[in-house]
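Can't paste images in this forum, so I'm doing it all in text. The chain is below; anyone willing to post the predicted C-alpha cells underneath?
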Amino acid sequence: MAASKLSVIFCLFLCLFVCLVFGSEYGEHFLEGGHFKECCTNVGFVDRTTPKIYCYAGQKKHPLRTFETVIMNINIPPDSYKLYEGFTAEDVLLEFELQHSLWHYNPFSFKRKDVRLNPFDQTCIGIVSSRNYRVELNVIKVDYWRVVQFVLGILLFVFGPRLSKNVFFYYVCGITFGVGASFLILVYFMSRLFPKTPLTYGFFLGGSAITFYAFQLMMENVRTISMLYKEYVIGYFFTTSLISFIVYYRFGPVSDPRSINLIKWCLQGAALVSIFMCSYFQEAVLGVDLLLLVTYNIPKSWFISIITLMKRFRPTPKRKLLSEDEYHEQGARETARALDELRGYCSSPDCDQWRVIIRLKNPIRFAKFVQGSSHLDDDEVLAYDVDSTRNGIASPQDYFTDDSD
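Text version of the structure:
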C-alpha cells in the first residue's frame, strides 16, 4: 500500500512538472500590447498537428478608444502555417475540427501575417505550423488612417450635393469607372475562349476556391507585374482613360435632376458606410451617422428657431444704463483721452508735421495745440456755453471738456 501511494504521488508530481515546463507551449496564451510569444523554440518535442492558441482579452469601450487598432503580427513564412480564428479557444478548436473533417475542403485558405483584432472583444487565433515562429501584439492607440477615413467620410457626406453637380468630379469618376469596367470586358472576352459545355459551367460554379486563389495570387503580384511590364501597364491605363473620357465627354455631364439626386445619394451612402467602417466602436460611429442624417434633413428654419429659443432662455447679465450726467462725463473723459493721444502722435517722429501744416488753414493753432494749448478758442467756448444755457445742458467746465483743465 505504501509503495502504491508513493507511486501515485510520484506520478502526480511528474504530471505537475510536465505541465509547468511544457504547458506554456500548449493551450491558450493571452497577449497584451507590446508583448510577444515565441513558439516551440525551447521544447524538444512539440505536437505541431494541433493549433497553438493566442488570445487577446479586449478592453472596455470608451470614446478615447474609438480609433484604436490591435494587430497581431506573425513572424513566419507565409506557406508554412494555417490560421484558425474564433472568439474563444473552444471556437478555434471547433473551427480546426471542421476544416479537417471529410465534408470540409478548402485547400486555398486565406493567410495573413498581420491579423487585425477587435479591440473590444475577445479574439483567439490558432496557429498550426511546422516551423518555429513569433507572435507579437501591437496596440495603436490612435490609428491615423482610421481618423483620415472618418474625416473624409464626413466631408464626402457634407459636400456630396456639390460634388454631384461638379463637372470635374463627373469626369474623374467616369474615367475611374471606365478603367475598372475595362477589366470586366477583358474577363468577358476571355470567357468567350472557353467551350460552352456543362463541364465548363460546373468548373466555374464549383471551382470558386481556384478562382479566388488565382485572384489572390494576381493581387499579391500586382507590384511585380507593374515593375516588369511598366510600359504596358501605363499604356493600358492611358488608353482606357482616354476612351472613357471621350465617351463621357460625348454624352456630357449629368443634367437631369433625378440622376443628380441618385449620384448625391450614392455619395452620401458611401460616406456613411466609410464612417461606420472606420472604427470597431460601432455604437459611436453609428451615432455619428444618425447625427449627420438628422442634421442634414432638418430644415434650416428649425435650427434658427432652436437657436432663438436657446438665446431667449439663456440667462444674460443685466447691463447698467448710464444716466445723462454719466453720459456727458464719459464723453468728456474719452474726448480728453483722445486729444492726448492725438497730441502725442503729432509730437512723435511717425507724424510728418510739415505735410500736415501745409494742409491746415490755421497752422499756428495746430502748433499751439501740439505744445499743450486747448483745442478750442475763446469764441467757440463762449458760443457753446450760450447754447448749453439756452438748452439746459451743463457747461463743459463741469465735465472737463476743455483739455487745458
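Strands lie at 28-30, 36-39, 52-56, 69-75, 81-86, 114-117, 123-129, 133-140. DSSP finds 16 helices and eight strands in the chain.
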